[in-house]
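anyone else get weird line breaks when pasting these?? whatever heres mine. first is seq + tokens for prot A
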Amino acid sequence: MAEMTADQLSDFRKDIGDEDADNYVFTETEINRLFTRADSDYDRTVILALEQLITNAAKFADYTVGQTTERRSQVFDQLVRTLDIKRQSTAAGDQATVFMGQMESYPVKSRDVPSEYEDTLEWT
């Protein structure tokens, strides 16, 4: 079984938001199992973990008691968005697209009337 380094474990927990030491979602053994399943690919490990979290979050139900409402389905929605972002960044090779350009300033033409009336008027 492949094992993550201490730095990778720390990064992994931060990348999936599993930073509450008193209540970790994944044990180190589970993380290393995911790492093995992902053929020691860190990004794929994070994706597998997010997929497992989504599967678990699908069980959550919204409920209302009196005037208090808790929408646990938001957890599912946020995890799905996070997974989409991670998949896109992994597919792009984590390379940012850089656009190099130059902004130019053009003077604004001063007009007495709006352009829609321009054809009906004679300019002197």
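and prot B, same format (seq, then tokens)
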Amino acid sequence: MLGENFFSLRFGGNNPHIIPKRGLIDHGPFRRIEGSLRVRFIRPEGILEEQINKLKDVLLKGNDKFPGGFEGVYRVKLEMLKEVIIRKDKLGNPLNDDKFKKILCEDKELSVKPIYVIVVPPYPRWFKKSPYCLLKAYLTRYNIMSQMVTFETLYTKSLVDTAFNMANAIFAKAGGEPWRLWNKVPSFSGSGERVIIIGTGLSNVPKEPGHVEYNRYAGFVVLYSDEGQLLSIKTFVTEYSRESALKELKRVIIESLNKFSVGKEVDIIIHYSGKNIGGLEEKEIAETLKEIERARDIRVKYIVLRIITNPLYRVFSLSENGYPPIGLYIQIGEKLILTYTLGSFSGMVPLGVPTPLLLSLRLSNIPLEKVDREALVASICEFARLNWRGVSVFNREPVTIKYSRLLAYLAASIKEEMRDLDLESLPSDRAWFL
């Protein structure tokens, strides 16, 4: 079982805390942003006006659960720009609204661009013609970050919780860093000077929602340091060809890793989930890492972990509440590790029965008996704590795979709606997709 120190987070002034909300309130974010942060609300005419005004008020002034509002928690001044009200008949495609287009023309010329908070109807995110995808695609062309909030969220969720979660995502999109890991992920080989964690995946994207006919692949590569610093995000879209997708996957892994100094010996842990990476892709990843090793004259020790999110295995505890403790892991044979990223922790009882993750050790260039299992489990459990989309105490999946489907569909939608937009121009140093 992992020690409880593996679950603490690092906030401003290098102070630890287990609870993201309290860490931010007490110590501020790990890394602040310079200057002030501008936000502009885009909302539909005559809908949810009262709820939106209350949400703005909480963001600006805060309350007892969000003391001092955005500025009080994130230590940066929040400037609320004049909102844009979209006509109801333009709600399906706000880009056709004259007022919106006029403001966008002005904002895109600013050196420091505002972040748009856009109130949208509840469309499925993977529906490429939804306002969510259309606006994300269009705004990324001008390097304007956006934060979507749905009608349903404003109707049914706590405004304070919504404001805190939105604030965290907005802060991260603006280039801030809410928190890092308190405990570094250790070397699984025992000799790595640095540890790099890579999340990667491929998704075959259907021509239309619900169809089984596919016309393209979308993929992503996310790099993190061993202390949870986001190093790089790359996405790509190819034709529906496995060879093309593999070629792109190889390219973005090499480009991402070549940006960073890793010393003479580096451990690389690769996380992936889903059905679209098989033996062929795994071998290509291994060959790619060998190429990097030769080209940069470094020693690379790697392991590829497939993360199975709904395994049949379960563990039951004889403790009072029956929950296994968070950080519990059990080896099943040589290549499987059952891992609990949620569970009982210091007297806190989680909501619902925690479901484990199953780690399948797929490929490594060192003998499996020499692999430190605790290091692998730490890379999963600790990275489940790095979800900046909100300030929840715990999340089940590590961030390396958490947004795989979202990243893939967003990349495919952006490419389809903005054919002249090079995906390489998307921010690689911040979580723009949150």
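btw re prot B: The two ends are 31 Å apart (CA to CA). The first helix runs from residue 20 to 27.
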